[in-house]
Amino acid sequence: MKKLAVLSIFAMIVLNSCGTAAFTCRQQLLVYSDESVSALSDESYAEFLKTAVISGDKQHTEMVRSVGEKMVAALTSYLVGIGQQDYLGGLDWEFRLVKDPSVNAFCLPNGKIVLFEGILQFANNPNHLAIVIGHEMGHAVARHGNERMSQQALLQSAGQIATQVFSQTKYGQNTQTVELFAQAFAFGSNVGVVLPFSRKHEYEADRIGLYIMALAGYDIYQTPLFWEKMMGDQKSSSFDFLSTHPSDVKRIAAISESLDEAAKYYRDPEFK
Ligand SMILES: [Zn+2]
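^ thats the input. predicted complex w/ zinc ion below
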């Protein structure tokens, strides 16, 4: 009887926690509020900034900021225009370039995007930066962090009483929520390590990244070549970005296949 009660509470939570991902409308299990995930992201970001060295490269810092702002403006006006501004909940975009030779970039679920100077060897012009930034924004706007934490919560609670796990998740943070976030976004001695997303999330972030690029007027057709170049570099196996974003042939093929569909998001007829 007790088991049945737990199961029905569990089913209720799952049924009440479904959402759909921005742009792709894929069904998602999201048991956390945007505010709750965002608050945890704010804490991690503050921790990260304590040890990170902000880049002194004014020119590239400005390029990162201006591409980021252009992408955010395009995404915001699109989502607001179609009445889907809810997807912007919990997002407070910010773009930082840090002095670090790693070929890396990451985005926290609150929209804080960090690029490491090392990635500028590849993303060395606004269009290439838009590829990296678009991908990272794709993870955030599709709430991949929340989804990953929710999936983990579900797995970890399979043998426990569901109510314990979910009791405070919508409105507060219990210890388990904090732990799940730490597992998903493993900040620590190894600065800025975000555990790899699933393939499904990577592919979805690629697609959404292309849509945002198109909305902002960037050339999406440079994207496959950009990843190929990065992957083809002799030192690429040591790139942190590629260890969490495997740019294999299949991923690049999927990007190529999405280009025509993504081109529908251009507002400027010149690109169509
Ligand atoms: Zn990614």
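The CA atoms of residues 34 and 90 lie 5 Å apart.
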